[in-house]
Amino acid sequence: MNNHSPPPAAAMLPAERDVLLIDDEAFSRGILSRALEAAGFLCRQCGDGETGLMEIERRPPALLLLDLFMPEQDGAEFCARVRRNADPAVAQIPILIITGLSGEDQEVRCLEAGADDFISKPINLPVLKARLATHLRLRAMRQQLEQQNAELAEWRARLERDLEAARLTQQAIIPQRLPALPGWDVAAHYQPVIQVGGDVYDWLPLADGRLFFWIADATGHGAAAALLTSLTKLLFRHAAALSQSPSEILRLVNRDLFQIFKGRSLMTALGAVLDPRTGHLRVAGAGHPPLLVARADGTVDGVRSQVPPLGLVEDQAAHEDEVQVAPGETFLLITDGFYGLANADGDRLELSALRDFLAVAARDEGKASDLLAALVARVRAYGGRDGFPDDIAAVAVRRRR
C-alpha cells in the first residue's frame, strides 16, 4: 500500500468553515460567496446539482447552502439525494436551503427531504452568518459525540475481551472434577453475577488422608476479581502444604494476603478438614457465612466464623470448631450471595430462612448435587426473579447412609 496516496473522500475531514454554495444564478452566487468569505468562511461554488454532487464526492464540505429553485432538480430533490448517500460523511452534511417563498408546503417538503434550515430571500447577511455558525457548531458537537461513542465502543470491546480472558482464567482455577470419596458424595455450584466474580472454592488432599475443603469470597468483580481469586487459590495451596489445621491455613493465607496488599484487599473464607473415615470435621472461618450441617433428624446446625476477614490485619487469631457428620447428613459451604436476594417486599433472605430451605432440600435421599440444585432453586424462588444480585458459590458434602 502506498503511504502517500490520498485518503478516500469518507476519510477526509472537511475544513471547519468550508461551505459549498449551489445556485444556478452566477451573479447571486458571486455576491453571496464574497460576503461569506469576508465573514471568514471558505466558500466553494457550483452552478447546478450534478456538479455539486461531484464536488461533494471529491471533498465533503462542512455545510451545504443551496437554492431551492434550480434547473433539472430543485433543492428538495438534491437534498434527498445527499441524504441517501452511502457515505456518512456526505449524508450527514448540514443543509440550508435558500428560498424566496414563504409557503408551508415547500418548507415541509424540504424538511421531509432532510433539510436542516431555511434562509429567506432577500438574504440578511448577519442572520445567515449566525445560522451558518450555529449549524457548524452543531455539526462539530455531533462529530465529537460520534468520536466519543466510537471510543466508548472500543473501550467496551476491550473490556469484553479482558472479561472473556478473565472468565477463561477463572474457569481454569474453579475445580471441574469432583473428589472421589468412598462413602461420600460431593457437589459444587458456581454462578458469577457477570462473566467473572470474586467467589472461589477448592478441595485439597492432605498427607494423612483427610481432605481440606475451602471457600472464599474476594472483594470486587470482573478481571480484577479473577486475578485475586487466582492468587487466592495459590495462597491456599501453599498454606495447605505447610499445615493440616484449617485455622492455621487461614492464618497463613491472611499473613501472605496482608503482606501483598497491606490491608487494601480483603476476603472472607471458610475452611473445613474432613476425615472421610470417621466423619470428623474441623472448621475455621474468617468473616464468612457459617458452615451449615443438615442433620439426619431434619435440623440444621451452623458453625460461625470467629475471626475477621483475611487481609484486614497482619496477625490473625486462630480458632477452630469440631463437628461430627453422621451417615445421611450433609455439610455445606456457601458465599454470602445467597443472602443478597430480596423478595417482592424488599425483605432479604435471612440465615434462618436459608436453614429452613436446606432442611427441606436435605430430606431427599438423593445425591449432593440434587440437594444443591433444590437449595438454589428455593433461594431463587424466594427472590421471585431470575438471577442473583451477587456471585454465589456453594460446596455440599453428603455422607451416604
Can you tell me about this structure?
The chain has 401 residues and is of the alpha/beta class. The protein folds into two domains: 9-147, 3-Layer(aba) Sandwich (Rossmann fold), CATH 3.40.50; 174-399, 4-Layer Sandwich (Phosphatase 2c, domain 1), CATH 3.60.40. Helix content is 39%, strand content 22%. The protein contains ten helices and 15 strands. The strands form three sheets. The chain has a five-stranded parallel sheet, sandwiched between helices. The protein has a five-stranded antiparallel sheet with strand order 6-15-14-11-12, with helices on one face. Helix 3 (75-83) packs parallel to helix 5 and helix 6 packs parallel to helix 7. The longest helix has 49 residues, at 125-173. The radius of gyration is 36 Å and the shape is elongated.
Number-wise, the strands total 15
> What is the average per-residue confidence, as pLDDT, rounded to a whole number?
87
Under the CATH scheme, which class of the largest domain?
Answer: Alpha Beta
Number of separate domains: 2
- Cα radius of gyration in angstroms: 36 Å
CATH superfamily of the largest domain: PPM-type phosphatase domain
Helix/strand class: alpha/beta
